Amino acid sequence: MEHFPVGAPGRAPCEPLRSPHAAALPKLAAVCLAAAFLGSAAAQTAPPGPLTLERALHAAQERSQALVAQDAAAAAARDMGVAARQLPDPMLSVNVTNLPVDGPDRFSLTRDFMTMRSIGVMQTISARDKRQARAERYEREADVAREARALQLTELRRATAQAWLERCYRQRMVELLQTQRDEARLQIEAADAAYRAGRGPQADVFMARSAVAQIEDRLQQAESAVANATADLARWVGADLARQPLAGSPAIMRLQLQDHALEGALESHPELAVMAAKEAVARAQAEMARQDKRPDWNVELMYSQRGPAYSNMVSLGVSVPLLWNQKNLQEREVAARLAMVEQMRAEREEMRRAHLAEVRRWQQSWRSNLQRLALYDASLMLLAAERTRAALAAYRGGTGPLAAVLDARRMDIDTRMERLNLEMDTAALWARLEYLLPPGHQHAATPATDRSPEQ
Predict the structure, then answer these.
(1) What is the pLDDT of residues 231-279, one digit of tens each?
(2) What is the residue extent of each domain of the chain?
(3) CA 13, 18, 24, 30: dihedral to nearest 10 degrees?
């Protein structure tokens, strides 16, 4: 590789050299810039460390465009609220009135005494309360956007946590099957050695190979599930982070949400908060409809100029709508807006009841799964392992068939896989409950049961 001098003692690395070789300076500068660019790119593409759950949540929040959209919506509504408080812009009018179109004075602006050249200004005057009601409506829409952002953030964190947990457990399933496959391959060697020594039938060799092939098939399915889980995680954190190894293990036996405070906590549920904000918008629109019963006034001032032989004129006019049918117009609109307020209130209450029942169902399923996990750890896993050891000892001692060993090993794998599937389902329920509310609205942590499985 060719090396170029990038500096000299007492000179900055990329400082121009004072030498007769001035023609080499552009090439030298290009090399310096390329080296700096490659170094920066290498620093940016350096592989990060293991991906923890908290890091995944932070990365998902940083790259989310849904949050950016809601921030923009809130900013737009606030700006509209400022504009709504102002009076409308005045209107400038320029007129030519009574211009002759025939006769000796046709198209003359000065000879006919009735021809007037006018310039005027018209201003619509709205009551301050009416402008405040309009601004209040936009401020409430900004609240809707803010609550919608909290909803997007909550759903983002929950979906990211579930994707991270699924990737974690799918990878553990792959590791379990890989370990079992390696042990099953040793069984092939043992069966083959027994056959060659005349202590076992050749059928045992084919039986052991068949068991390995079955594990390989399950391993292929598990690796495909890992790839799918990685793709789901990449949806939230990006492809580069999603491919990183995972680290850490959340304590899925504990929740931030207390049972006795559940109903009060659900008042902070983001979907209910969005509905409450929409109800406030409906109330603001009802107030706007009430204020619209007070008409806006239009005031116009006009200055008119005639020919030099005639005097100029000033005109002042005021116009106001005649609300002569308020019973069927304005009052109907007010009634409609109030009905929308009642609709929002009823829908929010119905949603609160649905969420309460849903969360209680999730909690019950989560506790039941924890109890089942404890049963697996205390009994089912131990029994499956003991059965495998007993069958293997009998086979090695010549008192048991290889089929019993393979059947016991298959049962052991199935038990471990069932336990991992159950733990993955429990972790998904935990993520739903743990990230049910926006950050900052969680309650003190409480364990689900007195006896929870260790993670």
Answers:
(1) 999 999 999 999 999 998 888 998 887 766 788 888 889 999 999 999 9
(2) 53-109+129-295+325-447
(3) 30
Spatial separation of the C-alpha atoms in residues 84 and 103, rounded to whole Å? 51
Instruction: Give the integer Cα–Cα distance in Å for 154 and 147.
Output: 10
Rounded Cα distance between 312 and 382, Å, is 109
- Mean pLDDT value across residues 35-57: 63
Residues in the chain: 455
Q: What is the dihedral of CA 400, 404, 406, 407, to 10 degrees?
A: -170
Which CATH class name applies to 53-109+129-295+325-447? mainly alpha
Q: Kindly report the backbone phi and psi dihedral angles of residue 12, in degrees, each rounded to the nearest multiple of 5, phi listed first.
A: -65, 155
Lookup: tokens for 63: 């790259």
Q: Which two tokens stand for residue 96?
A: 């030519």
DSSP class per residue in 404-433: HHHHHHHHHHHHHHHHHHHHHHHHHHHHHH
The set of residues, in sequence order, having a beta carbon less than 8 Å from that of 333 and lying 6+ positions away, is 289, 292
Structure tokens at 80: 């509209």
β-bridge pairing 446-447 and 254-255 = antiparallel
- 451 is written with which tokens? 């006896």
Q: How far apart are CA 256 and CA 276, in angstroms?
A: 24
| Mean pLDDT, rounded, for 149-163 | 95
Structural contact between residues 99 and 109, judged by C-beta atoms closer than 8 angstroms: yes
Full-model pTM: 0.78
